[in-house]
Specification:
D-amino Acid Aminotransferase, Chain A, domain 2; single chain; alpha+beta; D-amino Acid Aminotransferase, Chain A, domain 1; nine-stranded mixed beta sheet; 2 domains; about 350 residues
Amino acid sequence: MSFRIEPTAHPTPDADRKALLEAPAFGRVFTDHMLTMRYTADAGWSDGVIAARAPLAIDPAAAVLHYAQEIFEGMKAYWLADGTPALFRPEANAARFNRSAVRMAMPELPEEAFVEGIKQFVALERDWIPSGDGASLYLRPFMFATEAFLGVRPAREYLFAIIASPAGSYFKSGSAGLRLFVSREHVRAAPGGTGEAKCGGNYAGGLIAQSVASQAGCDQVLFLDAREQRWIEELGGMNIMFVFDDGSMVTPPLGGTILPGITRDSLLQLARDAGVTVREEPYSIEQLKADVAAGRLVEAFACGTAAVVSSIATFVDGDQEIGLPAATPVTTRLKSALQSIYAGTAEDRHGWLTRIA
């Protein structure tokens, strides 16, 4: 599938773009173009175009504004060591995007259209990919309901779009590790809800907890399960993993309330490749405290497309602060292994890289 390309008549001057790429802040600077494609129940998907980035015009009665039919993805383009731009597992993003669409009663987008659209978009915007440690072009594919209708039912018209933002490291460099605030008042998702879908409402519902975490001097909020408020699930925007003194790893299991992270899945595979015993099983906040006190839990880290791999130093639960050892050899090794694949300097054993012609 191809997309009509209409290059902007006013591209960012080279000197201005280079200045913007020197220290890109996450999600604040955007590239010159955007991709759009429209859907109607009668005609299906059509009118795919890559054109100048511009404001969107939607009706005040558009269903997304009233009933939140909206989903998105997060992915990145990188420079390989040989000077070729590449994507990491775009097919996995396409599949997850459609799972989110099904959960939100939205039309699925053919996976080949998703991947081909990303590839053509990055090929056009390749000069916006920053170089340097931790730098990438963050890609945001999203879809929302555009039909002007106030009845409560799935919309019949949608817009799919892709925008991009050059980005550096998500968290400040030089950090001694993340401080996580254990939320006891708010939950992220409940069984039967939309926790495993990548929809905006999941994030909006967690913003108040993130604000509380920030006021407590923490970087992120750690959510517990909705039923018992004791089982660790995930952070506000990333998954979590634990490393024990015997070298094994544990991460909360997927079950409908946790987003199936592609970085999460990749790290689990890399750990298994390295001979690490990996368990996907429930892990309680009480057990975490006991394991830290006994010296069994020696590392923990957050992982996601934006954050990649970020070590965790402290859990804050009310007036308790539970600190982990400063050394993070397993976290560092897994992060390095993943970033080496991103850079194309390590063997791509699982065929995760998609090079952009």
